[in-house]
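pinging the channel bc i need a second pair of eyes. not urgent but kinda urgent?? the chain im working w is below, pasted from the shared doc
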Amino acid sequence: MPDITKIKYPRTMHLPWSPGITDDDLVLKTTGLFHYRDVVVTEKMDGENISLYPGGVWHARSLDNSYHESRDYLARWHNTEITANIPPGWRVCGEYLRATHRIYYPDLPAYFLVFAIYDETNMCLGWPDTLLYAHLLNLKTVPVLYTGPYDETRFISALPPKRAGREVEGYVIRLTAAFPYSEHAASVAKWVRPGHVTEGTPHWTRGPARLNRLATGIF
């Protein structure tokens, strides 16, 4: 494998009204950083945070590539379909959803859904450029719930807890504009459903993988 510096995807702060906050989570003190700005609200998917690089290099958010059978598909797909098309110094970050964690997805558009792309300067692309480069790489993005001016009372705190009859883990708000890696905490925040982390529930990596499904006609 080429010598590529792996960069951990940063922690995302919880919105003050997120019901899924646990003792070790970071919480925004104010949402003023979004006021009078254009934002994109996307569905927070219940999968594995994965970063893809050129040269066949990839890692989970923990920088851990320990073996789990669901990752075999990821490694093959990345090496044969994606890696040669990622520009040098760039990385594509997304949710890997082949294995079921706590929410079962019966109709995914793909097993890997992009939520951020970083260029060689460690700048997170603006959302329009994210959509463009995802399209050029033949990748799908996470579902978009809203785009436009930030309006907490009308949109953000009132998003539905279910989507197409299934549970939703939460949602993520990010600035539409590009921002540097160092400003992630001031540019992205999340709402997570209550009870997402349950004491005593075995981690999804313990035991054989239960698989989500792609939508009919997708291979």
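so Helices lie at 71-82, 127-136. and Residues 13-192 form a domain with the D-amino Acid Aminotransferase; Chain A, domain 1 fold (CATH 3.30.470.30). — does that match what u expected or am i reading it wrong
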